[in-house]
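Moderator note: this is an archived Q&A kept for reference. The question asked for a predicted structure of one protein chain; the sequence and the answer are reproduced below.
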Amino acid sequence: MAPAIQSGRFELILIAQTGERFRDFAPYVASTNPHGVVAFQATLHDGRTGVFTGTGGEPAPQVSGDGAGDFYSHPDICEDGSLCAFAARRSGGQRLLRLRGGWPRTLADTGGAFKRIGPLGPTMNDSGQVAFRADTAAGAGIFRGDGGPTIAVADRTRFSHFHGLPVINRQGAVVFRADSRRDVQGIYLWEGRGKELETVVDSTREFDELGFFPCFDDTGSVTFSATRAGEPGIFRAWQGRIDTLVDSLGPFESFRGSLNNGSGPVLFYATPRGGNLGVYAGLDVSADKVLAVGDPLLGSMVVELALNPVSLNEVGQVAVRLALADGGQAVVRADTRPLRASSLPERRTPARPSSSGRGWG
């Protein structure tokens, strides 16, 4: 087991680093499940790619590019250790894979209706349902698959662009960020086949701009970065209301995104005034910092960090891929504790009807 590295009140567990075994982890993020198992994509020195998991010891290969192709996304990992990822066949074509016990199963590929799988990466719930972006002959869309017929969640008939990655929760509902054909920015909820899309929030009312990576949990809560009346912040939409979790009236001047697991911790990545981009679990820039650009680590200094909604698990552990000033790279897991009730004060905004008639906007 790798020794823990102290970062304020958080412990950083080294999962993997470049060197003799791994050449590159970029540009993909790492994910983690409720047992603290971290999954990541890596390039080896011979050019092959693979998917690996670790908890602090020697990372274990889950599948290599020899049998699956070249991986070009993060792997998402669920509670039982199953993973999903995008892979490109060396003979041509792309596919969405679910990996169980080292055996890859194709959930979708470019041999039929799909012309491209991706970009970015998939998200998976513990039932094995996967949400992902893909292109068909009609254009880009959001889809859900589980090995049976793939279901179209949203397509270009209503939206001009999709951003970030769709997030699926335990109930199989999907939240995604898109721009409408009227150039309205929005975050949308799909609850199942035959149900209308709901507008969670959009830019027709109090929000000027919406971040690309909303986060969605099993309670139905959606957290997101946005700008409202010219002021950036982190917000939560839940049960018909919008709460302000943190804004630029405090110690932070800009926000990149948030991570929410529905059971306590809400993490966000932001830049404090006069500081560098970092990951935080509250309003105290020092005490609540998980990790930030400029921090000393592994005998060097952090110059880049990457994470997205798959990086946080249900017990508040977060996986971070980072680059160091000496040219090295690492994947770490930060073990956090739940937020104090007062850590993120809430300012409530009265609910307003959405364009679907019953949403959260």
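Archived answer notes: The domain at 4-349 is CATH 2.130.10.120 (Methylamine Dehydrogenase; Chain H).
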